[in-house]
Amino acid sequence: MDIELQEISEWKLIREKVKNNNEYNSDWNKAIDLFETRLNRKFFNPLGELIKQKKQKGEGFTIVTTQCALVESLASFRKGQIFNHQKNKNSPIFEYNSSGNMFVEFLQTDEIFENNFWTMENGKKKENFPFSADRFYSDVRCGLMHEARTKNEWFINTTKKKITTAKIFIVKEGNKTKILRSILHYRLKSCVKKYCADLKENDNNGEKLRKLFGRKLDHLFDIKRDLSYDWWK
Question: Rounded CA gap, 187 and 47, in Å?
Answer without folding.
Answer: 13
